[in-house]
């Protein structure tokens, strides 16, 4: 029975020869991402900026412009109003008023203010969810996210240096960071809302991206030990050998996250979006970025980098 | 050759049975219910049950069941709307003798509960409820304590008959006292040192500077937040919420989560309620039980009830003097400790200057007589009467301790004769928690409606099911027999993940559900690696059985490296994330760990079952 296959097994695409082009594209994407972050900034959600959000459900669809006018009359200028779900649901984000009675009353009044302002005749609305978040919290969260990033990078460097080799560790971390920056940059570029779950999604992209890269590197290590060829040929062979696995895994992973995007509802969409992009970028980078990096400058690998050291030591020990 | 040790099959079987058992409770739905608990010794019995049943039928609520269970009455209902209705009706009818609380009653059979199997705890986003994050104003707390210290210094100087020009608070937590004669400065220093040995003192000319040491400031800050947590806990217990979370977060924040509570306004009022305490003398020549029975109370006295229950199972009455000796706003601090003379647990209390003076006057006249501490709580309540909001205040008064006055004392004294260090700690907490040590701001507030919670669960489950279905169909199509093996491994992986999360009491949140879906996506990687490797070995011309064995062998190392790095990222998410992110991280970590076992161990066992043995196989479906 002949196996069913997406990729021909004897694929022999010369990825390494394309390295200048692929690394160039990767660099360009990185620059665009950083540029977008610098110029556009992020559309930070409540988790980061502080403010109030109220979700309301009405019996009949409502006119968003009308809602904005009513909120303005109630003293909430610059309110963000969007519909979601069936169109009867409203998501309203606004900056709470400085309450005269003190901060403890803030949340209370905002939700009821909004409800009062939106009391449509014959179309009653109920508050599904309301949230007030202080900006102080957001700052802490951002700092925590940064710490998580540093922890992960350090952890990767230590683990991969230990299991593989320092050059592999640096190349893998660079590739992963590239993916994270590009995914984050997408949110700056598109202006899609960046909230806590998106942050979680971005950080989990690191997990996926490194996983993909490690699988390819693992094969590189294996081939360096068993093949007689130049490093470029070995790298090329390794990528080609793992190509069908890389594509299948990414395809299935993408499908699962896509299900999340389709059926998970509004609150999971941001997270699913960050992961969908992360999976695509992570897959491409493990093919086009990670291995080419191992042929450049101080990252250039040689056979001696990967010979099992334990064997040499054992051999030395046996000598009189 | 393709073999697999027999004991490993037993392990797999065991894992399968245990996973099924511990995942099982999740399929039993929880009943929305109302729990009624006796307050102040009120009986929970058949009579109450009839009363509750009557009240419910009058309110048009038909309960699923009304059960008596370990001193509680549990009313099971059909849906959350009925639950709210029943709760309101019962609260009005039963009044303050009973605590009426919303609850979710388990329908898990008793035998499952006996082996520790329980459903996953649902986060607020899946269940509905309120979440508050409160910030304690540490500066205000410190100001209060520094003011008290400055007042103490003034009193010490006055009592020592030293003339002073000023006692002032300065920035950087110090107090500067200027005495009239430079010669008195050293004497002033000694007086202050004797009354408060933990302060740092320095004399220069006619000024004595008093510095509060850093350690002391730290202690004050910690005490302030603990006092606030204690106060909140007392109040929430009175509210009767099931499974509330009241946690200190960081240096100056408190998280409060009340699942099932919908009325934030009411919750906020209770959390912001004021409480205080009073020291009162005991009127001794009356038998309190007679006074209660006859209504004859001496003109200077009033009947109070003690926290402890008497022999009749009701709170013991006591007659206290109407005159207040000292009150809570004069209380500066209370700490539990061991009494140095007797070695028994004790509570050390500090009052401010004014309170201390009055305590001194009173104790001088009443040595050997009992004195009581009364805890008073004022909770604003809002009821809807005839469609109008009526605001009332409920006042709870309770005698929390009665002790004999052993000698004359002033602003610092001890309550001894407590039974255990725990009792001492509880009393100290109650004394402190009379009032909030520092004002708190609500800086974050989240309300999730129960219907939105239900919707979130449904959406999340649908998403997980679809992602699972996508993966399974793809594998069946692409790898055929090995696709079936992979699917079986994935199913067990899912089962294990649910069992582990239920067993460890992890909280399932909406992002947690996303984590489960993502786990499916990530765990297929291990299976793909194995299957692709087997194909590769086959192409190299190895006989099928050897190819399978080699495939598993060679892929294992790669899988370990790839998954361990992914777990590393999960650990970072868990360590630095909060709330929903943590829930996501937990399911991701557990999922990757279980997938390593199922992909490598279990799928190999199944493959061996199918293709192992002595017979030669010409080809395999992969």
From TrEMBL, chain A:
<feature type="transmembrane region" description="Helical">
    <location>
        <begin position="276"/>
        <end position="299"/>
    </location>
</feature>
<keyword id="KW-0472">Membrane</keyword>
<keyword id="KW-0813">Transport</keyword>
<keyword id="KW-1133">Transmembrane helix</keyword>
<feature type="transmembrane region" description="Helical">
    <location>
        <begin position="20"/>
        <end position="39"/>
    </location>
</feature>
<feature type="domain" description="Protein export membrane protein SecD/SecF C-terminal">
    <location>
        <begin position="127"/>
        <end position="295"/>
    </location>
</feature>
<dbReference type="InterPro" id="IPR048634">
    <property type="entry name" value="SecD_SecF_C"/>
</dbReference>
<comment type="similarity">
    <text>Belongs to the SecD/SecF family. SecF subfamily.</text>
</comment>
<keyword id="KW-1003">Cell membrane</keyword>
<dbReference type="InterPro" id="IPR022813">
    <property type="entry name" value="SecD/SecF_arch_bac"/>
</dbReference>
<comment type="function">
    <text>Part of the Sec protein translocase complex. Interacts with the SecYEG preprotein conducting channel. SecDF uses the proton motive force (PMF) to complete protein translocation after the ATP-dependent function of SecA.</text>
</comment>
<keyword id="KW-0653">Protein transport</keyword>
<dbReference type="Pfam" id="PF02355">
    <property type="entry name" value="SecD_SecF_C"/>
</dbReference>
<dbReference type="Pfam" id="PF07549">
    <property type="entry name" value="Sec_GG"/>
</dbReference>
<comment type="subunit">
    <text>Forms a complex with SecD. Part of the essential Sec protein translocation apparatus which comprises SecA, SecYEG and auxiliary proteins SecDF-YajC and YidC.</text>
</comment>
<feature type="transmembrane region" description="Helical">
    <location>
        <begin position="196"/>
        <end position="217"/>
    </location>
</feature>
<dbReference type="InterPro" id="IPR005665">
    <property type="entry name" value="SecF_bac"/>
</dbReference>
<keyword id="KW-0812">Transmembrane</keyword>
<dbReference type="InterPro" id="IPR022645">
    <property type="entry name" value="SecD/SecF_bac"/>
</dbReference>
<feature type="transmembrane region" description="Helical">
    <location>
        <begin position="169"/>
        <end position="190"/>
    </location>
</feature>
<dbReference type="InterPro" id="IPR022646">
    <property type="entry name" value="SecD/SecF_CS"/>
</dbReference>
<dbReference type="InterPro" id="IPR055344">
    <property type="entry name" value="SecD_SecF_C_bact"/>
</dbReference>
Automatic annotation (TrEMBL), chain B:
<dbReference type="InterPro" id="IPR048634">
    <property type="entry name" value="SecD_SecF_C"/>
</dbReference>
<feature type="transmembrane region" description="Helical">
    <location>
        <begin position="460"/>
        <end position="479"/>
    </location>
</feature>
<comment type="similarity">
    <text>Belongs to the SecD/SecF family. SecD subfamily.</text>
</comment>
<comment type="function">
    <text>Part of the Sec protein translocase complex. Interacts with the SecYEG preprotein conducting channel. SecDF uses the proton motive force (PMF) to complete protein translocation after the ATP-dependent function of SecA.</text>
</comment>
<dbReference type="InterPro" id="IPR022813">
    <property type="entry name" value="SecD/SecF_arch_bac"/>
</dbReference>
<keyword id="KW-0472">Membrane</keyword>
<dbReference type="InterPro" id="IPR027398">
    <property type="entry name" value="SecD-TM"/>
</dbReference>
<keyword id="KW-1133">Transmembrane helix</keyword>
<dbReference type="InterPro" id="IPR048631">
    <property type="entry name" value="SecD_1st"/>
</dbReference>
<feature type="domain" description="Protein export membrane protein SecD/SecF C-terminal">
    <location>
        <begin position="442"/>
        <end position="609"/>
    </location>
</feature>
<dbReference type="Pfam" id="PF22599">
    <property type="entry name" value="SecDF_P1_head"/>
</dbReference>
<dbReference type="InterPro" id="IPR022646">
    <property type="entry name" value="SecD/SecF_CS"/>
</dbReference>
<keyword id="KW-0812">Transmembrane</keyword>
<dbReference type="Pfam" id="PF02355">
    <property type="entry name" value="SecD_SecF_C"/>
</dbReference>
<dbReference type="Pfam" id="PF21760">
    <property type="entry name" value="SecD_1st"/>
</dbReference>
<protein>
    <recommendedName>
        <fullName>Protein translocase subunit SecD</fullName>
    </recommendedName>
</protein>
<feature type="domain" description="Protein translocase subunit SecDF P1">
    <location>
        <begin position="225"/>
        <end position="282"/>
    </location>
</feature>
<dbReference type="InterPro" id="IPR005791">
    <property type="entry name" value="SecD"/>
</dbReference>
<dbReference type="InterPro" id="IPR055344">
    <property type="entry name" value="SecD_SecF_C_bact"/>
</dbReference>
<feature type="transmembrane region" description="Helical">
    <location>
        <begin position="484"/>
        <end position="504"/>
    </location>
</feature>
<dbReference type="InterPro" id="IPR054384">
    <property type="entry name" value="SecDF_P1_head"/>
</dbReference>
<feature type="domain" description="SecDF P1 head subdomain">
    <location>
        <begin position="314"/>
        <end position="438"/>
    </location>
</feature>
